[in-house]
Amino acid sequence: MRILVVDDEREIRDYIAAMPEWADIRCSVAAIAANGAEALDIARRERPDILLTDIRMPVMDGILLAETLRREQPELPIIFLSAYHEFDYAKKAIRLGAVDFITKPFVAADLVWAVQQVRQQQQLEWKHQETFFALFSLPEDRDGEKRAWLAEHPSDESFVLLYAELDAVAGTNDERSPFRERSLTGTLLPILEQSIVPCWTGTADAGLYVLLRGGTVDAATLQEEAIELAKRMIERGAMTPELHLSVGISLLEASLLRLPEAIRQLKACMEYRMLLGKKSVIAYDAIKSIRSEKEHRITFSTNRLADLLRIGDRPGITEALREVYRMMLTVGAGKQEIQHFCLRLVERAESVMEDFGLEPDSLTRMRIREKVMSSVILTDMMREVELVMLSCASRIAELVEHAPKRLVAETKQIIGEAYEGELTLQAVAKQLNVNYSYLSRVIKKETGQNFSDLLWLTRIEAAKINLLREDMKAYEAAYAAGFKNYAHFSLLFKKVVGVSPSAYKLQATARRDRQ
User: Fold this and answer.
1) Which one of 12, 278, 389, 400 has the largest count of C-beta atoms within 10 Å of its C-beta?
2) In order of start, what are the domains of the chain with their CATH numbers?
3) pLDDT in tens, 232-244
4) pTM of the model
């Protein structure tokens, strides 16, 4: 393969041109250029096999060079070499169909590896059946077009579909990441070349489909080869740290028209990868039989964790989350289900905290949701959820340990100072900066009475004092103590004291007279 090297720095282009590693992969530098305009003339004349170009150059930059050559030589592979890390350049490179984007400073191995991927992919390009995958992945209402395609190509046959996808960690800063999916194809194609079963491949947004065709082999051989091929693909990916991958395997399908169903199965497989971890082989046949009683067990786990939070039981929460992890493995929950469940746990924890009058800060709320939605491995996600729940438990435990008697005492003090007015539980809770339902439970637990009982009893005691005054009638004593309905006051007073307000006033007057 003949390479055209373009860079405005003489030292760099001379270094690349003189690299002895090119001979090892049967490549050579056909020409060098100092800017895009010079390179454009050379490319039109020499028709190189690969363009390796810098981006920022005088006269004509690498992006404009690539755009021009893409129109004139659309099959020319382009590798960008730049000292700039801005993702805008990577996005432009992807739009122009670049096969790689290598940042300076670089080592010779980076360039050799990138060119090798292009070489391998071009040598095995016949294996790609992009047209087939684009058509047959469409919904069933396009089956007429698919049958027309089958009439012009090999007849319909059974198949098993594999899907290899990178075990990418969301949020990592990997400057090669925009091109890793393309590297995946070049890495795996030599493995597929050795398969004993004929196969077609098709690229996807983040991975590679491999269709094992069953026209010449029996069903058992087809399924066995699918598993062995998946293992070999993972082993090959493990040789390159940035290409660690997992592979899903569909059911054996009887017709190529079933490709949309096989793709759906593989989507479920890749969601299940969250449970198994990186570098996993996930067969749909193995996971479809364990999806039962999921919602019941998830709801039970959520309620149990909420109960443990209310008592601030940190060890209990840790053990319960371990059980949740095992439950997820058992029921075969998918990625979305797991994310929703973890978000449900977070929301339940925040709700419990609100019951205790505790408010998580907005940054914490946002951070945990971002962590949950970006995690692709269950252990990472559960670790984040555990940290949130243990933090909530610690705050609640501290409140539970020290707050009840203090809250009751402060509630009684507020009642004693403001019983005459329109006093409500909600108003007292707001003044104490706690949730009113939590305050209600604390009062009941500590005193055996409700908030209204404490309020009425305080008002009755005040009314009893008022009734001792000679210048105050019974109904006046009631209103002065905060009662707005004399009939209600009279019934409550008799229930608590044992006699009516008027009788109590007479008895008190008689006792005073005898003294």
Assistant:
1) 389
2) 2-123 (3.40.50.2300), 125-286 (3.30.70.270), 294-401 (1.20.272), 403-514 (1.10.10.60)
3) 998 887 777 667 8
4) 0.43
